[in-house]
Amino acid sequence: MIREGIENGEWNIPHPFVVDAVFQKFGIKNANGRIYPEEVLKKQVEIYQQKIDERRALGELNHPAESTIDLGRISHNIKELHWEGRTLVGKLELITSPGFRKYGIISNQADQAANLLLSGIKIGVSSRGLGTVTNKMGVLYVSDDYEIVCWDIVGDPSTPQAWITPEDNIPQQYIESKENDGSKSKLFEDLEKFTDWLND
């Protein structure tokens, strides 16, 4: 487990340093007052999948205003994304340095993010993108010209409950289950099965 960064007095860092996270949600107003429609966000996630496949789904620690990714500030690479109802979840890898893995020396942004997690600090994820918004009766909807640049690691994510979780799973309360069709997220079904197994 990632919490066991120091074990028996020895520095013990996982490599690769992979964590789970909530990345985005459609149809829900975020802290910036914007709503990402389902068709807009799902289309962009599908396009973004090519970057994941090519191992260039990079992001930074903190959330700059620029539309380009600064390689000098890279903290992570996204390994996988999938939908749980209206919630986009997945895994990202912190690109930690050899010095951090061996001695705990912080020399880049990934080391800093990993150190925050190892220290029990709650950090999250926020998207960076380009596009316009449409005002509909006072509500801002992201338009279909939206383009995802990346997801950055932040201290205060705009998407509700978009936290990084170093426990190899996303807590159910971070996920908005599917609505109107009566179905449950796969993760919720797995948790129910586990509970049933415990009660047998």
Molecular structure report:
The chain has 200 residues and is an alpha+beta fold. It contains four helices and twelve strands; from the N terminus they run ββββαβββααβββββα. Strands 5-6-7-3-12 form a five-stranded antiparallel beta sheet. Strands 4-10-9 form a three-stranded mixed beta sheet, with no helix packed on it. Strand 1 and strand 2 (10-11) form a beta hairpin. The longest helix is centred in the first third of the chain and has 16 residues, at 38-53. The protein is globular and about 55 Å long. Residues 178-188 and 191-200 have low confidence and may be disordered.
Summarize the structure.
With 200 residues, the protein is an alpha+beta fold. It is built from four helices and twelve strands, in the order ββββαβββααβββββα. The strands form four sheets. The protein has a five-stranded antiparallel β-sheet with strand order 5-6-7-3-12.
Topology summary:
Blueprint: E1 6-7, E2 10-11, E3 17-25, E4 34-35, H1 38-53, E5 58-60, E6 74-84, E7 87-94, H2 98-103, H3 109-118, E8 124-130, E9 133-136, E10 139-142, E11 147-154, E12 164-165, H4 186-199
